[in-house]
Amino acid sequence: MNADLAVRLTLAIGGVGVAISSGEYLTRPGLLADHAIAGWPAGRSCRPYRLRRTADRSFDVLPRYPNVPVLVTLRLAAALAVVIGRPVPAVVCLGVVAATYP
After folding, report:
1. Which residues lie closer than 8 Å to 82 by C-beta, 6 or more apart?
2. Cα 39 from Cα 31, distance rounded (Å)
3. Cα separation of 7 and 15, whole Å?
4. pTM of the full predicted structure?
5. pLDDT tens-digit profile, the chain (102 residues)
6. For an engineered disulfide with 79, which of 8, 18, 25, 91 has Cβ 3.0 to 4.6 Å away?
7. Tally of CA atoms within 13 A in the half-sphere of 39 that contains its CB
8. Which among 81, 44, 36, 45 has a CA at the least distance from the CA of 62?
């Protein structure tokens, strides 16, 4: 096995895992609601960093509940693109997966 194949298989395995977790969140969207344990208000309190108040407020709009299924769908599409391969570079897809992690 050469290094390219090993990297490709590792990306595919990781992409399948992200796709499965995204599918789970999409089938149970209530898990990411603002009042649920996996919601943004609970996750926000665990951030190790703080932004300026205006930046923090503007950033808070995106991960709130009505918008979270859109982010999870985008993450699912990026993970499937990593598994499929060539149409989109893996670095772009992995960046999307990292940026949209709930």
Report:
1. 11, 12, 14, 15, 18, 90, 93, 94, 97
2. 7
3. 12
4. 0.74
5. 798 888 889 989 999 999 998 898 888 877 777 777 666 666 666 665 666 666 666 666 666 677 788 888 898 999 999 888 877 788 888 888 888 776
6. 18
7. 11
8. 44
Structure tokens at 82: 């990593």
| Three-state SS sequence of the chain | CCHHHHHHHHHHHHHHHHHHHHHHHHHCHHHHCCCCCCCHHHHHCCCCCCCCHHHHHHHCCCCCHHHHHHHHHHHHHHHHHHHHCCCCCHHHHHHHHHHCCC
Residue with the two structure tokens 């789970």: 24
Residue position matching structure tokens 């390219």: 4
Element (H, E) at 91: helix 90-99
User: The tokens of 100 are what?
Assistant: 């949209």
